[in-house]
User: Fold these one by one.
Assistant:
Number 1:
Amino acid sequence: MLNKTRLVLSSSIACAVGLGVYPVYAQNMLEEVVVTARKREESVLKVPVVASVLSGETLDRYGLSDVGQISDRVPGLNFGTGVVAAGVQVSLRGIGTSTLNATIDQSVALNVDGLQLTQGLAFAAATFDMAGVQVYKGPQALFFGKAAPAGVIAIQTADPTDEFEAIVRGGYEFEAEEKLGELILSGPVTDTLGLRLAAQFTDSGGYFENTAQVQSHPIFGNLGGLNPTYRDYPDEKNTLVRGTALWEPNDRFNAKLKVNYTDQDSQGSAHDAQLSSCPDGTDSAVGGLLGLNFIAGYPCKLDRKIAFSYADPAAFPGVWNGGAPFSKAEQVFGSLELNYQLGDDLTLTSVTGSYDIDQESLLNGATTPNYGPPFMSQNKFTRNDFTQELRLTSDFDSAVNFLLGGFYQKGDMGFLVDLPFNQAYVPLTGINTEKFVWGDHDIDIEAYSLFGQVLWHILPDLELGAGVRWTTEGRTHKVTDLLPTLSGMPSTPVPLGNPTIGSNNWAPELTLTWSPTDDLTVFGALKQAYKSGSFNTAGVPVPWQDTSFGDEKVRGGELGLKTRLFDDTLAFNAATYYYRFEDLQVDSNEFDAVSRQFLAKTVNAAEAEVYGIDIDARYSVPAIDGLILSGALNWNKAEYRSFDNALCWGGQTIAQGCDVPGSYNEFANVNILAVPPEYFPGYTRQDLAGEPLVRAPEWTANVSLDYEHAVFDGMTLRFGVNANYSSSYLTALQNRKDMYQDSYVKTSANISLSGVDDGWMVELIGDNLTDEIVTGNCISSPYADAQLFGNTYTGSTLTGISGVDELACFAERGRSVWMRLTVRPAVLFSRSR
């Protein structure tokens, strides 16, 4: 496959030298970029916000088919794959979600056509037929939902066109043997109504290879394990359909309806982790005495080979999908935007949003390749949200203008936790149950918000912006224990220590913007924002346990400069920032000795500070028509100011910093056959003050070159290259040396040839050509002992029988090489006539 890829690239991109982030313009002047960072259409040059903007042409031209790929073009933006319903984990300037909690809000919000989304699974949708993406860095407290403490990724999907347009596209990706088909129909239906239908289907054969080979023990057999049916991982089919209706009956009113449907079906995987580090080797400490080495023989490194067995339904009563890991998610969401001109200078806007997701998955609970795991993890997640926003915006020809608005959210989340216990392990453990954990969580959300901003031009070139958002929110948590139903008893509601939480927050923002010329802006901003608290939904809590965690708070500011030089051929932007976070929501995976469960917990445990510099520039070279150079750089320091109750990794000794007492019943990565806790010194925590945050590289940069040129018979040739650099960063909270992702450089290239008016186009697009396999999320656990046997000490002078925890990481896909053919029949037909 590698030789095939090199052959295709060498034959088609040998002369390619550039991949730009912005489109090329024949006049060698950079076109003005318009953003809606303040719910007004404004030049990015005049807005006091640090923004990275990617046009729809750029996104389409370079095959940026998911939100994760955007991070390669936006320094400071980092993604990590989360397990099952936790979805994508997003960080911006080092601030993001690092906990495997499906019911937590992301620190970076996703806004799709005015609909605010904060659940990780939503980041996998709405990434086709886009008009553009705007990434706003830093807290966005006023204009995007309830607030987003790290930033916002705002996606605008394409609207109906003024003239009829049809686009048919087929594609093939060589590495994963992925097929793609797209159809877009757009145009006016009447003088006042336009419609657009966009549909995409992909079928991937799989990028990774599952190399697991289940063994047969002379006494215990295969311990309920089966060899993988799908060796190529993941075998995935995705369908996305979007309909848009735009109605403009007169000059004063318009209505836009967006409806999206996505179906993602992945067989053979549920985004399972890959063993990447085994400090003590792969032999099992206790299981090895019985001839049971669960991961022996497998290299512990991050690459294109993973290894995990399937579940034999005979050993796992009630296991889903015949024991084959899978993940399936259906999402239906959309927005209705109404705009009414109350007068020439006053606009009333209504945005009604709806979001619905149903997701279910099954995965190998202990990442075991040689035998069946002690338990499988099968989960169902649902979320339904209704949102309503009203805004009144002025555009007076005076020194003062304003925006006033209100926001309402009503939502509920359901999460079914189901861990079928491997019956083949009953003789080994004495644990006799069909399910290790089985429970249902339900969370209700209701929030109200009022917000407003006044813009005052103190002088014609000096603007003061002052605004505030007030938010009140309540959440309620209900848990039902389903285990009693296995004995014919009714399910049992679990009383909680704090089933209802509420908050009232004020998020002010103050900006000062000075524009002495049309080509220069200097700005300063002071901001405060919050992220909502929620509840832990892993496992089933013991009665009267407090499952809640509180709001996250950030305050700080930015100073920036934006300018255009040399007759609008060079754009240069620079900003510096400092923010302090309090009650940071962080991961605290724990073993609870009372309930005998591993709990993926979120706690308010830390204070952090983030400061750095953002620089970006793009240059349209006057001497070479059609050539653009661009680059961006982010230097960022994201560190804990205080964090004295961070979890220790399994096997961390007192000398290694595990010297802070923890709760009597909380032991990090101590498996279920551990000796009683009174044998331990009681140290389960460490102090990480001064240490970096997860997914917070100190340096990230992007450079690109883009060129297009008209060739014979009205055809156009486009080609380019792009390079993205990231320094090393932490991928797990405990801060062990092997938990760092090494620095890397990703390179991309593309070349295309199109006919007159782009009536047809042939493209070759290569992404991550050096096949860098990287990760943004890792978990430490005693995988060599199948998370069941042996002992892993923390806070002792010894590491315990099981030594030091192994590390499993969620690898991101590496190289992709796409060949695409696009045809616009209406253009070809008009040309033929």
Note: The CA atoms of residues 282 and 296 lie 5 Å apart.
Number 2:
Amino acid sequence: MERYLCIHGHFYQPPRENPWLEAVEVQDSAFPYHDWNERVTAECYATNASSRILDPGLRIREIVSNYTRISFDMGPSLLSWLEKNARAVYQAILEADRESLGLYEGHGSAMAQAYNHLIMPLASSRDKETQVLWGVRDFEKRFRRQPEGMWLPETAADLETLELMAAAGIRFTILAPHQARRVRPMSGKKEWQDVSGARIDPTRAYRLRFSSGRAIDIFFYDGPISGAVAFERLLERGEDFAHRLLNGFSAERSWPQLMHIATDGESYGHHHRHGEMALSFALRFIEGNQLATITNYGWFLEHHPPTHEVQIFPDSSWSCLHGVERWRSDCGCSSGAHPGWHQKWRAPLRASLDWLRDRAAAIYQLRAPAYFRDPWAARNDYIDVVLDRSEDDLGDFFDRHKAKKLARNDWAKAVKLQELQRNAMLMYTSCGWFFDEISGLETVQVLRYAGRVIQLAQEIEESFDPGPFFERLAQAPSNLPEHGDGAAVYRRFVDPALVDLQKVGAHYGISSLFEEYAEDTFIYCYEIERLDFRKSTGGSAALATGRCLVSSEITGDSETVSFAALSLGTHDINCGIRRLSGVKQFKSMTGELHATFERGAFSDVVRLMDIHFGIHSYSLRHLFKEEQRRTLLTLLKETLESSELAYRRLYEENRLLAAFLRETGIPIPKVFFTAADFILNLELKREMESDTVDGGRVRHLLQECRKWDVQPETVGLEFALRHTLERSMEGLAAMPADLRRLEKVEELIGLAAEMPFEVKLWSVQNDYYRLAKTAYP
């Protein structure tokens, strides 16, 4: 009996980019990492690229890439982030697919994904087509080959979507077993067999035929074992995982069996710590003992094509018992984190976005023919610009699709139309409906995309009125009284995030009070060309004035902005922005401002700023989040330093007294304990971040913590020591013959082992393992 095994991982993160900045801003809930993409990469995507197989003594026997041996899809939004922010992991994923081509006779293990994880059965026909084509094109650009399979977000399927996939050259997809309705053999005239209720046999491929004559093959994953990976802690032991997988085979089947599961890729390391190691062990155990042949779907289809055809339940998915209602109604499906909460907001949210999508489509249909011969074909092709926003690629795009010769100042107008459509699709990302509350991060994210659509629509069509959008959104009730409804959530979380070129200019003006910019610089996806700049300082006060050309890398829009920014040494910073018709006027106004500032007449400076630059006023609260934090820390520097001195004095001067109090059983005053807690943890962090860590001092500080009953701040300290170790390891990798560096690394590894918390040595182990196999064979 032929037995084959395939494990599919659906790797995906919801887009977290600020739609105006095209970058992920800091997310405090991901501490000590910058954001959740960075955290999940460290815990899952990177670890699956270098997973451990241990020997009986729990030493590393081998480091392997799971991506080479499993089937996987990875969302384009995630791959785009990895390409920019975790390049080594990104390259390891691409390389793993290349290796799998050799292992499986030209069938790569990577699959494409419908582009931005919207629920396809609920999308318009045009959006379905674009999502499929964009997913294919993104895959081809990254993996340098055509995709054989495509993952549908939430496995949500309908016949139109599946036929569009087949038309795009997709051979197969994966669905949940309960999405199958009935099956029958492809040969003979046997009757259809009802397999509803997840009764389909998951160990073979099935063919779905369309009336057009096209067809697509479908694999229905093993539901119980897939569920056990997600919810039954099956990844705690690799051997248990292997045996559970093998239980999916049956001696009663006479055909070649494909035992396969489909799971969230984040199960392997993020949701379940060391889950990637359980996966590596299971694959090695099964293959090493010749219990089954590890393969992927493309290879299996070539050697064992379908013998049965299938019909599915349309508008069905893997994560909603009610089809696709989770993304449009209060069907009862939720995360379960907040018992008693309703999801009555889901239907009004979708209604508001549907209205906005249709209005955006109408604007596009009206305005796009002025620039594109076939506007919808141009939209389908716009993914090439998204993937490479260079001027050459944009020029090639216009050469292929322009309706007439376009002047350069027409390019920005044409791109805005395409960005209107891109964001109109992004606002349907499935995560916006998946969880429990309309004010949650994921739903606010889709509302931010809606905000970008509204902004672009108003710039393209001045008569555009978003009123009906907000009327519908106001019908979406929050579970939290302080948030009220969807319209209030929008005002609270989306309005402050809105960015235009003047706001970018204000950010540049305010931040220039505290940092030096080059003549040409970038702030996220905006290029700033300095045309004029002057700065005056006096004590803790500063005045900056200037003119700059602000240009969007995304749309090509540009605007000359004049600014005057004033800080009096507190968080109360004021910045005025205006358009000025001439340089002479600017010089006259700013000259008066600086002359007044240098006389120390700050109240007159404020008055003159209001007169000359009070048309658009901005403050520290308008800075982008990360610069806002840096600026506040700069302003707080003296306060923090004096506070540290006070705490240090309290700790040092009362250290012996506290010891005496402990001996006599008298409680230590809380103020002394607070000072010790602050100083000891601060000193530990500084020492662990140092390139010359003093192990003796670290041990002394930890001993002091034990004396004072101070708990080390383990998360931040672990992160600091780990990164110091990683920097030391990078230095050793660059100079492997430097024995002093080797000794220092080994000292740090020894120190890490003594810590009262686990230091994650995954990256250090990777580098050490590679060095051991090359520089120290």
Note: Residues 32 and 405 are 52 Å apart (CA to CA).
